[in-house]
Amino acid sequence: GAIGSVSSKSLLAHYADPKNEPQAAIRESCELALQRICVREAKGDEALLPPSNCPFVSVDPAPAFSPANSVGPVPHTVEELERVLSDESGATSLWLRYQAMFSLRNIGTTEAVQALSRALRADRTSALFRHEVAFVLGQLEHPASQPALLAALQDDDEAPMVRHEAAEALGAMADPSLLETLKKYTEHKEAIVRDSCIVALEMHKYWSQFNR
Prior knowledge:
With 212 residues, the protein is mostly helical. The protein has helices at 9-15, 24-43, 78-85, 94-107, 110-122, 127-140, 146-154, 160-173, 179-184, 191-208.
């Protein structure tokens, strides 16, 4: 999807089909990648570009909402975006929920972070979605997200990929109060959680140099 090769559309469509791929995270990843290519085909590169003032340099799986990539009114407020983000009814596509996610990230206020944090813990439809929310919260490094990220890391019923992103998000914050929890989970029985916390501690050590 990030490469944007039209030649990969048939392959992505194949693995987005539940008849061909049993793993939901793989299907959903292919669904998002396919939609990204289709949007680029239909609306051009402009539809995928971040706002000119966006401080994030990541190639996101879906763009924030803009007139260039939206049909109908563009949701702008945190309240409007959270309604899209948190719609688990099936009426709102995963693509649109991702667009709301990155729109909230770009807003970056405490209220936007709180909306993302609620989605991280409340969503029950997609581990891939929750893992991306945790990644976005790591980009923002906002203290208001710490309770939700800690809860995700400590939740043994949460998918390992989500706990992985939560750990690294906490490591990126370089908050001394998080060290005890990160150290504790370096001995967790789940290898992904354990290894993620080891990496998170290294991230914490590195970024702490710049917080002095």
